[in-house]
């Protein structure tokens, strides 16, 4: 596979980065660090959150207008790149002022440490600014992770994985899973010649 992988800074993803794969960072993870710093350094945290919010506003507008990737890429070049340049300049100024162990210092250091990856999304109109969509998709799996230790057997775990894949695919395609399963079971029970396609 070749393309852009949008991910957070989890070390497990590093093995997936190979020749021909571009790593793009998750702006939502950087944003969360500044959100956590609000209680200890409101002014600086709000400044960073406001600038990141402007980047998200560009993405929201593109989503609302269903802008094709080429148009999204163009708008990012015109609107997001200057904002990113301004944010980078501010971060580099603040890193020398903020206490390194403070929440705002950690937020700034985290963001600067990922900066080339956080900017990578602007180069490809198909790339998202964050990986929230996939995180929201897998959240139910992560929440139930401990329960999966008790699938009963390898076969039970495989069946559970098949069902999760089926349900996830139905959701992605706007298909009601129960109706789909009912139709599949009806087809399986039908005798040859009884089914009209």
Provide a quick synopsis of the model:
It contains eight helices and two strands; from the N terminus they run ββαααααααα. It is mainly alpha-helical.
Main beta sheet = 2 strands, parallel
Helical percentage: 55-70%
Name the overall outline: elongated
Low-confidence stretches: none
Task: Measure the end-to-end span.
Answer: 36 Å
The count of β-strands is 2
Order of helices and strands: EEHHHHHHHH
Structural class from helices and strands? mainly alpha
Radius of gyration: 22 Å
Calculate the mean pLDDT score and round it: 88
Strand order of the largest sheet: 1-2
Q: Total number of helical segments? A: 8
Strand content: under 5%
Structural notes for this entry:
The protein is mainly alpha-helical. It has 8 helices and 2 strands, in the order ββαααααααα. It has helices at residues 27-36, 42-64, 69-94, 103-113, 115-119, 132-143, 154-172, 177-189, and strands at residues 3-6, 21-24. It has a two-stranded parallel ribbon.
Spell out the key features of this protein:
two-stranded parallel ribbon; 8 helices; 197 residues; mainly alpha; 2 strands
What order do the helices and strands come in, and which of them pair?
Blueprint: E1 3-6, E2 21-24, H1 27-36, H2 42-64, H3 69-94, H4 103-113, H5 115-119, H6 132-143, H7 154-172, H8 177-189
Parallel strand pairs: 1-2
Helix pairs in contact: 1-2, 1-4, 2-3, 3-4
